[in-house]
Amino acid sequence: MPFRAPLEDFRFLFDHVVGFADIAATERFAEASPETVDAILSELGKLTEEIWAPLNRSGDLDPATLENGVVRTSKGFADGFRALAEGGWLGLSAGEEHGGMGLPLTLTSAMNDMLSASCLSLGLNPLLTQGQVEALEHHASDALKAIYLPKLISGEWTGTMNLTEPAAGSDVGALRSKAEPNGDGTYAISGQKIYISWGDHDFGGNVCHLVLARLPDGAPGTKGISLFMVPKYLPNEDGSLGDANSLRVVSLEHKMGLHGSPTAVMEYDGATGWLVGEEHKGMAAMFTMMNNARLGVGIQGIGAAEGAYQKALAFSLERKQGRTPLEGKGGTGTIVDHADVRRMLASMRADIFTARAIALSCAVALDMSTATGAPEWAARAAFLTPIAKAFGTETGMRVSEEGVQVHGGMGFIEETGAAQYYRDVRVTAIYEGTNGIQAMDLVARKMMDKGEAAMALIDEIEGFAETLRAEAPELAEPLWQSVETLREATEWMLAQGDLNERFAGSVPYLMGFARVLGGYFHLKAAQAEGGQGPRARLAEFYIRRLLPEHVGLLAHATVGTADLYALSVEDLSA
Amino acid sequence: MPFRAPLEDFRFLFDHVVGFADIAATERFAEASPETVDAILSELGKLTEEIWAPLNRSGDLDPATLENGVVRTSKGFADGFRALAEGGWLGLSAGEEHGGMGLPLTLTSAMNDMLSASCLSLGLNPLLTQGQVEALEHHASDALKAIYLPKLISGEWTGTMNLTEPAAGSDVGALRSKAEPNGDGTYAISGQKIYISWGDHDFGGNVCHLVLARLPDGAPGTKGISLFMVPKYLPNEDGSLGDANSLRVVSLEHKMGLHGSPTAVMEYDGATGWLVGEEHKGMAAMFTMMNNARLGVGIQGIGAAEGAYQKALAFSLERKQGRTPLEGKGGTGTIVDHADVRRMLASMRADIFTARAIALSCAVALDMSTATGAPEWAARAAFLTPIAKAFGTETGMRVSEEGVQVHGGMGFIEETGAAQYYRDVRVTAIYEGTNGIQAMDLVARKMMDKGEAAMALIDEIEGFAETLRAEAPELAEPLWQSVETLREATEWMLAQGDLNERFAGSVPYLMGFARVLGGYFHLKAAQAEGGQGPRARLAEFYIRRLLPEHVGLLAHATVGTADLYALSVEDLSA
Questions:
Q1: Does the keyword Flavoprotein apply (chains A, B) (predicted)?
Q2: Where are the beta strands (DSSP E) in B51-186?
Q3: Which domains, ranges and CATH numbers included, belong to chain B?
Q4: Residues of B in contact with A572 (CB under 8 A)
Q5: Does the active-site annotation cover B432?
Q6: ipTM of this model?
Q7: Contact A564/B541, CB-based, under 8 Å?
């Protein structure tokens, strides 16, 4: 069975769970009518089903290679990218003044989900370009905007992010790349950057690198970092490609997965760069790009989960093994009727729903923030971003792992394709800030408001559970109980003045929060179906079987550091 | 840091947790004195550290290949195998009458752990040979024993298991391979078998295939299956290699991991075979081999986890990123001092301990059963086997996944080596009966005694928790609570006359049981240290942070089938 874009899921979530109508009701996004949304989703569905999905295996089997300093991409990738660009889809949410469609990020999120599900490695390219567009829109000078934005939005050029260096990964502030003023308004950028996704390709056009580097008078740490646009080719006044810049791809990494996405070591040797935003304020500018990218990476996890799920489901509908419990009772006769296989598939589907609802809620909050300027929406988006990233990618790992399991022995054979999802998605829990970094962000920066954003969400869930307690007690009561436990865990977090006490349980806290959010969104879906429908049945499954995981997670979340540091390095090494 | 055999862990578990002294106190295993055990563990530690560990990457980078019908194995593998054979280690637990050492399986389990940790793909070979030896010891005629056992025990020859066919995986009874009597006491075996690990190699000697096939008068299903010894070369009377048998390796699979282990498609074309055990009783004979192999595969998961853990720990002691909370307080300055990294490492270590204690307890029960013939020990071993297999391999997956995470971006780069554990170990949750099959075995066959074995274990844990309630309430009380919840879940299982009701939650039940067992074994370790020591500190970590997972798991375990089958195939496909 080939990939099928989950259009119904998006429509249902938009209409009944995440409140897309609120976005469409704003002046800013008045064009996002149901008809427009439908038409766009359908077009993107077609593109991903027909053009992108067939590329997925090609990317794995025919990895990007470096040949004489130039990256040769996987067979068909250039055409796939071109088809996306020609549809104008790269600029779906970009500003109209430079050629974008100005439509909600929520719609772009659904697009990224389908791109990731159909071909994760190629889908990373537009994700980076989208992030670069947003960073330039917010921080670049008008002159830079005029040169770069139209080309990035049209897909003529593509963008990358250059943060990491060998000694500066999670600790970005340790970077050593240097920027020296050239005296003509440009800068000479020197240094080595690693893990640069799509650092080069053969799609034509320019590769536009946003590079973090330190000016001579930059302070140590993150406060002394500035952001520069460093293009592969120096653009002429008319926008055409001029001389090659002093930068090169040193090598490509040999990775466990995502082979179709070239991961470059980049060398900048006095390359010409232009400042983006203010001097020494590079991290703030980069954060614009990273927040967008973090949500995008969470969605990569969900997309990969969708692809893995569809493959496993299709297999379970073909594979016959043993007598099933539904034999003679209208069953399929295939393994999908075995209780444990159906349990695995239902778990996968229930968590894809959860992760997607969280990610799309985050996108809706971003759009509402853009449209209304209300700080509550910005706070909601900021709070949900690390959850969307970490839970989305965790779901990618869990679902692709179960996808392999459903296939049995065939899951371990590469030709089946199940293993590719498992290998590809693994990096999403690492890049754009590891899931551990996301969780630290959640319990520290995202609670600097004294927990206001967290508690607003908790109150909302509790209020919803309250209203359903009489109507649907068997589902509303467990949700109510879970949100109370979450409230207590959140209060515990807020009471810890020493942030490290929070960090000792931040990952399970984030996962526990996601579990409770899942209960909320599943129950909303059930209610929208009047308690009778496929999503209501999935909600029952989720609430009875997966929601209870919050107990263990939130217990783990609130232990503090004492037991951790009691375990010495010697204890761990003994 | 190179691999270091975890000898201290084995010694501690033997002495203080799993009761190795009880084995040594039996007449049957009187030779297993502390000195002998120590000497053997040390020798095996040296072998795995010095000879096997350096082969691990070679197996991955230089996979086994099929060249003109013959398997060429990874560079160095033949020497590694030879070193193991020359030590006599293949026969560590084999009977002395054919050259074995007759020592406890518990000791072999520790060996398999180290072999798996140092080189999982090569370690699979002796595991299969051990299983074949055991099957022959129990079921083969004296004539067959005399020919095969000395050669298998010395490592001159190796063994394989041939169960799976394209349409017969978990459903072994669906197999189509045929056996026709030749009239001279031998049989002509025909059919295709897949996923035959170590189906051929270039170590020299014979490859001895135990093949399941159906005689002309064999009933359909598992009841009509017989077991045959089908060697690659027909042995001469004097034990030397005679003519090639009519069998061949058709192809090798291209797998996600375990590249050093050749996984063959085997074709038998009227190959000469000898009956092992009685006609139509092949499954019973195969089960002897499979039970041994299931425990062995669980231990593969633990070994892979050990290797992944050691690699991650070493990295965390070298890698510097950011200011750590222990700066100026005697910290290392490396990422091991970050709370979330230490939490990950402690989780990994705590679950390796849990899984190892379960597996070694299972081995001890097997040895006690052999030594005493007491049915309680056999029942204990039978009950623990699926838990040891599924939880051991689940631990392999979880720990290798976290091992990648600790490495950050480097974890996704193949050269680092962390990814190999993640890829290699994945199959262990599938082969020798998927973990889903293990869980069904646990709640069905292993509860056919009306739950006697389960309840005996539960009573033992509860009794232990009782005795410690006054002395160490903060750890004993949570264990007591958890075992009560487990008792309720077990009673729920036993009350379900329709086994499918049990199957709907069998995997989370098994995992929940393992969590409670972990509490028991950790607390035993803590008590042995008088509450003051590295294992007592690890026990506190486990009981406060990981034991609470039993709540969600056991809630999930006891929901039954109603919600599963309410979710129709259409619901799952919508």
A1: yes
A2: 65-67, 70-72, 158-162, 178-181
A3: 7-154 (1.10.540.10), 158-285 (2.40.110.20), 435-567 (no CATH)
A4: 313, 336, 342, 345-346, 349
A5: yes
A6: 0.98
A7: yes
